[in-house]
Amino acid sequence: xxxxxxxxxxxxxxxVVRREAEAIQALCDQFDESLADVVELLLxxxxxxxxxxxGTSHAMAQRxxxxxxxxxxxxxxxxxxxxxHGGSGAITAGDVLFIISKGGESEEVNTLADIAHxxxxxxxxxxxxxxxxxxxxxxxxxxxxxxxxxxxxGMIATGSSLVNGAACxxxxxxxxxxxxxxxxxxxxxxxxxxxxxxxxxxTM
Length: 204
Fold this sequence. Notes:
alpha/beta, 5 strands
């Protein structure tokens, strides 16, 4: 076990957060008009937005689906692995399948994209590699690439998951604004907890 002083632990933690903040800030320069293609597909979806991923990307998919629903875009998270054992029956014509995948080469998500197209759904990929198998299978690609070295060993998705989450947040807020989704509508969706008890006037 490596030993560090208490001061070194605090300094190290600060460095991690500083680097992650810089990685999120750098995301701004990646956005281009392909983002508008993604937003328009989501905005015009006449079914549900189904969000999927594998591993940490699945955890981010769960978060994104929840926030979309909170912001007026009906969404569900589906498990890409389970979907290949019957869960893909949830996909119907008019849906949009939004897949989060760092490399775009996971067999499960690529097979799921094929199933979605066969059922008449659109596919969006959020990935570092637009030219990947998933990127080529998708109707729109949202390129999201985290800074090099942001993840431990380049494998454990700590900082890169935050970057993906920030990109998803941008989509959620854009959709909320474009739909004119009001605090009143949100209160109907979220009547529980401290948020549900807030007065509308407190949110304006």
